[in-house]
């Protein structure tokens, strides 16, 4: 099915997916306006802002506030559908300094010693 694209009256575009649910994409300026309205204390709370700006839920505003407090420029980054950026799967010793290599190899050696001791204890039972 095709997704249809439209314009929102609230400063952004929206996509309508297969399920008929509309996913609004708000502009950074709009998000900042909503967050600063909330932070000013004159808005009357999250529920009032949801009604005023015709948002779906106050969870959107809470998310924007959290991002705004961490880094206002992150409001422009849409992370939906992106994979988590956990730790690297492959550790390359070539990319490490000698001190880092030494620390990593000592840690790896300690883990293997503990594993060996646990296996030995398990086999003795």
Summarize the structure.
By secondary structure, the protein is mostly helical. It has helices at 28-40, 46-52, 58-70, 98-124, and strands at residues 4-7, 12-16, 22-26.
Q: How does this model look, in words?
A:
By secondary structure, the chain is mainly alpha-helical. It has four helices and three strands; from the N terminus they run E-E-E-H-H-H-H. The protein has helices at about 30-40, 45-50, 60-70, 100-125; strands spanning about 5, 10-15, 20-25. A three-stranded antiparallel β-sheet has the order 1-2-3. A hairpin with a 5-residue loop joins strand 2 and strand 3 (about 20-25). Helix 1 (about 30-40) crosses helix 3.
Put simply, the count of helices is 4
Helix content: 40-55%
Overall 3D shape: elongated
- Count of strand segments: 3
Radius of gyration using CA atoms only: 25 Å
Write down the overall mean pLDDT.
81
Structural class: mainly alpha
Cα-to-Cα separation, first versus last residue: 61 Å
Mind describing the biggest β-sheet?
3 strands, antiparallel
- Order of H and E elements: EEEHHHH
Low-confidence stretches: none
Residue share in β-strands: 5-15%
| Spatial order of the strands forming the largest sheet | 1-2-3
What's the arrangement of secondary structure elements?
Elements lengths: L3 E4 L4 E5 L5 E5 L1 H13 L5 H7 L5 H13 L27 H27 L1
Antiparallel strand pairs: 1-2, 2-3
Helix pairs in contact: 1-3
């Amino acid at each position: 099915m095709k997704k249809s694209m439209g314009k929102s009256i609230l400063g952004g575009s929206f996509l309508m997916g297969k399920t008929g649910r509309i996913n609004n994409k708000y502009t950074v300026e709009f998000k900042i306006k909503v967050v600063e309205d909330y932070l000013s204390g004159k808005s009357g709370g999250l529920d009032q802002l949801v009604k005023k700006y015709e948002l779906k839920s106050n969870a959107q505003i809470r998310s924007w506030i959290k991002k705004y407090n961490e880094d206002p420029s992150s409001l422009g980054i849409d992370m939906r559908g992106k994979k988590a950026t956990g730790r690297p799967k492959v550790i390359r010793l070539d990319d490490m300094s000698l001190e880092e290599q030494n620390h990593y190899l000592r840690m790896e050696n300690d883990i293997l010693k503990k594993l060996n001791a646990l296996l030995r204890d398990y086999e003795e039972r």
